Amino acid sequence: MDTGITLILGGARSGKSTFAEQLARNSDTAVTYLATSDICDKEMEERVRMHRERRPKEWNTWEGAPEELPEAVAKMEGTLILDCLTMWLTRLTFATDAAENGTEEDWHVREQEIRQLTETLCGSAGKNTHLIIVSNEVGFGIVPENRLARRFRDMQGRINQLVANRAANVALVVAGCPLWVKAEK
Fold first, then answer.
1. How far from the centroid of its chain's Cα atoms is residue 61's Cα?
2. Is 130 marked active-site?
C-alpha cells in the first residue's frame, strides 16, 4: 500500500472523484470515504446519492463536522478518500460570517484558522494510511466579479498549494485522464 498523501485536482466534472475511487479500489487495505459535503438541497442530495451508489458496499463512510476531520483522520488507518477539499473549505468558510461580511482583517484571521486546520489535516494521517484528497483546481478561470468569490478562489488556490507541497503524489485530471504533475521517487 502507498502511504502518505495523494492530491487529485481537476475542474468540475473532470473525473477526479472517479479517479480517486479507482486508486482506492487498487488498495489492499480497508477504504474509508470521508464525505465533506453538506446536503442542503435536492440537487446535492442527488449528487450524494450517485456517489454512494458508485462506491463499493464494503467501504466505510465518515460524515461529520468539518472541524472534526483532522482528528477523525488521525484515528484511521488504511486508504482514506477525502472528497472533497473544496466542499470542506466551503463549510469552514461559511461557519463564520468573515467571508461575506467581515473586514479584510476578519477574513485574513479566518483564512489563517482554516490554513492551520489544513496543516493539521495533512499531518494527521498515520504511517499506515494513504490519504487521497480530491480538490477543485480553481486557477484556470477568470477573476470572479464579487469579493466573496475572489476570497474563496484565492484561499482554495493557496490551500491546494499547501496540500500539494505535503503530498507525495499530485495528479491533474482532465476529461477523466490523469496527468501526474508530482510523483514520489
1. 15
2. no
